[in-house]
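Contributing: when you submit paired examples, paste them exactly as shown. First protein:
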Amino acid sequence: MDNRDKTNRLARRRSDIIGAAARVFDANGYAATTMDAVATEAKVAKGSLYNYFPSKHSLFVQVFTTALGEDEQTTENLLTQPVSATKKLALYVDFWYSRLEHYKRIGGLILEFWASAARDDRQGELSNIFQQLYGRWHGRISTIITEGVASGEFRSDVNIPAAATSIMAATDGVTLYTIMNVGVEFDRRALETMKRGMLAGLTAPPPQENDQ
């Protein structure tokens, strides 16, 4: 076996372990999950598991970041499309909505991470990861709004950080309610209402007659 084959095999095994750990964490929660249970689910020896991840904590962090990594890349791709800021914002919200059922399926994992980060010291690893994750998403939305202000699509007096925070709060809130299965069902009609509300707070008013 050459080095490339070995590297590919190790990468596949690591990916399999992460997938198995996600299932165990989601089913049992962080506290009740053991490395033995993960090894059994992944069909590897416990000793082999520690060759990939030195602790349950490091495995949990990797499971969560892997679960959301694909979404981050897709959103990054949205920012490079040659479309208006209004369209980018709509595409962002549409993509989030398309992933809502996925977030519901891994809801236990998401809630476990949020809870663990909240219990963590402000300088702890989970807290830092959460802050970095928030910062990246906030930055992407802020970039879209900044483009809209520059193009005249959005009002020039928009408070960009506050607007980005409001959009994140809206989507995170719906995600939480969906995971917890409370509140009204969030369907396509609700999605369009959300988008109209977001744009109403951002869109520049039509020019006055005396400005024409």
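Second protein:
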Amino acid sequence: MADAPGPDASGSPDGTRPTTGELTDAQRSLRAQMLATEHWSLLASRSTTQSEVLTRIAIYLTLVSAGLVTLSVLGNVTGFRGWFGVAALGVLLLLVLLGLITQKRTFNASLDDLMFVIAMNRLRGAYLDLDPGIGPYLLTSANDDEAGSAQTYYPFSPRPGQIWASSAMIISVVVAAVIALFVGGVVLGLTGPIWLAITLGLLAGLGSIALWMRSGYRGYTAVFRLHSPLRTTSDD
């Protein structure tokens, strides 16, 4: 006898949305309680993730500020000669490494937030299966596809420029500036001309932003490539 097909990512053996038409009132009530518990768990996890990543960004910005102030004090003490160059490159290298770590965590948190939104959209779809009459009262989406996640982030209209004001973009710009300073400092330390230091530093900073944006886009598209939605906006 052939094995029965196992459930896929949708939670149903045949990949279709599970029905609730044959549930008793007691079963509907129990299912609503369990879904609400999962919903609150997702909300708490989303809030904790956002708080943690914003704290990391604040710590990094404080370190950058403290590092630059330290370099200015050292410059005044040493007259920007002697061991100042080595100290400056050491401080900038440390800020670059800490920035890359913070940047990676920020991009991971952005994907985590997208996962939370998709999961809560799916739960709203389950609420509609239990009681279709609540549909008009939901401002955010009950569709766990890409269009549904975009509606949940901002229900009133498309927001194509949202990424430019995100935490990921803020940390990307700051880290790119630190990388540019470090690369320019290395070029000057090797007795390179000032124009070459500025050019290579600018290219390194812009390249860093481009690489991280490409990485973030690939992570975003991978989410919807691997995810199998139960409800799609086109069905509505």
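If you have annotations for the second protein, write them as plain sentences, like these:
Confidence is low (pLDDT under 50) at residues 1-11.
The helical segments are 25-78, 84-130, 146-153, 167-189, 194-226.
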